[in-house]
Amino acid sequence: MSDDSGAFLGIHVMKPIDNSRFNGNLYLAAGAHTTFTEDEHVGLMLGIMYSINETTMISIMPGLMFMKHAASHSNMGTGMGMGHMSVANNEWETEEAIHIEISHTITFFNRILNPSLSWMSSSSHNQYSLGLNFHF
Fold first, then answer.
1. How far apart are CA 26 and CA 47, in angstroms?
2. Which tens digit of pLDDT belongs to each residue from 92-126?
3. Contact 3/128 with Cβ under 8 angstroms?
4. What one-character DSSP code corresponds to residue 88?
């Protein structure tokens, strides 16, 4: 499985789900991420975010990963190629994916920061990233 971890830019939009069972801590969420690696990767997700406590939130969002690979990536150094990829090189491919992220609010020098750790996986790729979330 290819590891395409690297710097990324993402956005999550969330709407609280009115439900007394979860005390207002459950959100419907949509997200989009792009990864700045040698090969282009874009993820689109729809799922839930849950506020575990006042400072920690977990996201579980299934979606699609769109990828565009160069010829050198198709065999990933094995000489065998990726059998499930039937499209020509440098064309967009699509795979179902899952995105899981945990973020935590901390105060650092009187500034509120929201670092996150995320993982997005499809049948052929894993992407791990450390991020910094901004809330508007």
1. 11
2. 889 999 999 999 999 888 888 888 998 888 888 88
3. yes
4. P
